[in-house]
Amino acid sequence: MKAIKAMRIRFNFGDSWTSPYLHILLSQENEVIVARCLDFTVSSHGNNESDALNSLTEAVKECIISAAENDALDSIYDPSHSKYWRMFNELEAKQVNARLTKSLRKSIPSIIADKSAVLSSEVSHA
Predict the structure, then answer these.
(1) DSSP secondary structure string for all residues of 61-84
(2) Centroid of chain to Cα 37
(3) Of the residues 1, 21, 35, 120, which has the fewest C-beta atoms closer than 10 A?
(4) Gap between the Cα atoms of 74 and 120, Å rounded
(5) Are 7 and 52 in contact (CB under 8 A)?
(6) Who contacts 1 (Cβ-Cβ below 8 Å, separation ≥6)?
(7) Measured between alpha carbons, how far is 106 from 100 in angstroms, rounded to an integer?
(8) pLDDT in tens, 72-126
(9) pTM for the whole thing?
(10) What is the number of alpha carbons within 13 Å of residue 46 lying toward its C-beta?
(11) What b-and-e string marks burial along 33-55, b requiring 16 or more CB atoms within 10 Å of the CB?
(12) How many CA atoms lie within 13 A of 75 on its CB side?
């Protein structure tokens, strides 16, 4: 198994409900892409990333509907094994570092050219 992408995504159920951001780990296993929702211990697979995510969407939907029909919403949070969370965190950190480096490389000429600029900050929350 090789981890290939860490994602935080929301699931929409029509106009009825939008999930909070959920942790999704994509991995290559044999000839397929496996998508895991680490919050529900639900996984699915497909021939490519898109197929795997679409299949996972249906699996999460069924998990939530089943929990609702069985009055088990209080126990729906069922986190995956810690090895998947470690893989997610390591991969997400690498992805953030790559985006930061790319952004800095793109902006570095103007940063160096304007050393005397006053820095300001803007804080936003996810």
Answers:
(1) HHHHHHHHHTT-GGG---PPPHHH
(2) 8
(3) 120
(4) 44
(5) no
(6) 27, 28, 29, 34
(7) 10
(8) 999 999 999 999 999 999 999 999 999 999 998 988 888 777 777 666 767 766 5
(9) 0.83
(10) 15
(11) bbbbbbbbebbbbbeeeeebbeb
(12) 6
| Backbone phi and psi for residue 17, each to the nearest 5 degrees, phi listed first | -160, 140
Q: Are 40 and 51 in contact (CB under 8 A)?
A: no
Q: Are 8 and 25 in contact (CB under 8 A)?
A: no
Amino acid identity for residue 41 in this structure:
T
Q: Where are the domains of the chain?
A: 2-86
